[in-house]
Design a protein that fits this description.
Elements lengths: L4 H13 L1 H16 L1 E2 L9 H7 L10 E2 L2 E2 L5 H18 L3 E3 L5 H12 L5 E5 L15 H5 L1 E5 L10 H11 L3 E5 L9 H10 L3 E5 L4 H5 L12 E5 L10 E5 L4 H12 L5 H14 L2 H23 L13 E5 L7 H10 L2 E2 L1 E3 L13 E5 L1 H6 L3 H16 L5 H14 L4
Parallel strand pairs: 1-12, 5-6, 5-7, 7-8, 8-9
Antiparallel strand pairs: 2-3, 4-10, 9-10, 11-14, 13-14
């Protein structure tokens, strides 16, 4: 995927009025072009999405919803937002959609606000086992406002422990049962979660931020019609602009809309909603299905190649777009390997592993994802090369740095972004 015209126009405008900011933009453009991006939550938008995100719609204040605004002059943005709503409902076969959340965390906080009072109980995945900060971490507003209790994974297979989930449902009787993860590489059984939620009279909430693109393409089971409410980001595997969304059953539509505006947000970002609409349109195309299939093939290939080289992968593999390498016994922490790979133009993030003996600032693992490199055109052959690079750096970050840099340069030159 190559993008030229919008970038050139942006550069010309900024060169005249703000060369200082332009310099940093150009540096980031070059970093993206020369780096292998393996951050599981990152992707690269199309030129059409980028154009919409930089459009004149950024000028419009549009508090409220289509046909129900608190400002005049919304005739055109109303139509844009309705297009985004209609497309995402079709994409996920959802009854109601709110496309205004600024990010995934905003979407989650709005859902809590819609259904909970401060102090109410939510059951979600433990952060150290693959959950998310907005699922009740004590450093998040979610954990400060509500009583989150957490389920984990089995120690042998490192997969969701439904026995523990039901035990905790019976003990804590939460108002919300949340299935959603920032670092879980296996298929999620939404139907099983829904059965348990119904049995214990809990609202079933899904945070599909990481796997939304896979779900849209039908290569991962869908939370619909099982979930009462579903949140997501619009970037990651969905390959849209940075933002969020909420999908829900029609009976919860009014509560969700009020929880976004006026409860937790003001004016929506209409330029980003336009970019979401474009991305949803792209996700409805047949090519998007093939793209999502390749994401999974690439992730599985990378996991298999690393395991063949002797590395342990959390849950012994992956069913989706991400995987986590355990570094126990290598002599290095996740933060050290993240830094070493960054020196070679390979971008990953340090990540805790289940039952990690190290704190989050260092960690015993690194998380890897394939959405961005798949967008770029990488396939199985490149995954083999990447696995080799990671192996070389873990074995000797200093001695093998020059060799890895050369491999990375060769791969990136074959698949230029810009």
């Amino acid at each position: 995927m190559k993008m030229y015209s919008q970038i050139l126009r942006t550069n010309e405008v900024l060169k005249e009025c703000d060369s200082e900011v332009l310099g940093h933009i150009l540096n980031e453009q070059e970093r993206l072009n020369s780096n292998i991006e393996l951050i599981a939550s990152e992707n690269v938008v199309s030129e059409a999405v980028q154009v919409a995100a930089g459009s004149v719609l950024t000028n419009k204040y549009a508090e409220g919803y289509p046909g129900r605004r608190y400002y005049g002059g919304c005739v055109h943005v109303d139509k844009v937002e309705q297009i985004a709503i209609d497309r995402v409902k079709k994409l996920f076969n959802a009854e109601h959609a709110n496309v205004q959340p600024h990010c995934g965390t905003s979407a989650n906080l709005a859902v809590y606000a819609a259904f909970l009072n401060p102090g109410d109980t939510v059951l979600a995945m433990d952060l150290n086992c693959g959950g998310h900060l907005s699922h009740g971490s004590n450093v998040s507003a979610s954990g400060k406002l509500y009583n989150f209790v957490h389920y984990g994974i089995t120690k042998d297979l490192e997969q969701i422990d439904f026995t523990e989930v039901e035990k905790m449902l019976e003990e804590h009787r939460p108002k919300i049962l949340l299935a959603g993860y920032s670092n879980y590489s296996r298929t999620v059984d939404f139907e099983k979660f829904a059965e348990l939620a119904k049995k214990y009279n809990a609202i079933f909430m899904v945070d599909m931020a990481h796997i939304a693109g896979l779900i849209a393409a039908g290569v991962h089971p869908s939370p619909f019609p099982y979930a009462d409410v579903v949140t997501s980001t619009t970037h990651k595997t969905l390959r849209g602009p940075r933002g969020g969304l909420i999908l829900c059953k029609s009976e919860y539509a009014a509560a969700i809309d009020k929880a976004i505006f006026p409860a937790t947000q003001g004016g929506p970002l209409m330029h980003i909603i336009a970019a979401k609409a474009v991305a949803f349109g792209e996700a409805l195309q047949p090519e998007f299905i093939e793209y999502q299939k390749q994401i999974i093939v690439n992730a599985k290939t990378l996991a298999d190649e690393l395991m063949a080289r002797g590395y342990e992968i959390v849950s012994k593999g992956t069913d989706n777009h991400l995987l986590t390498i355990k570094l126990l016994g290598t002599g290095y922490t996740g933060s050290e390997i993240e830094a070493a790979l960054d020196e070679c133009n390979i971008t990953v993030n340090k990540n805790s592993i289940p039952f990690d003996p190290l704190p989050p600032k260092s960690t015993s693992g690194i998380r890897i994802g394939t959405p961005a490199v798949t967008t770029r055109g990488f396939k199985e052959a490149e995954m083999v090369e990447i696995a080799n690079c990671i192996d070389l750096i873990i074995k000797d970050p200093i001695e093998n740095q020059k060799q890895v840099k050369a491999i990375v340069k060769s791969i990136c030159s074959r698949y230029p972004l810009y």
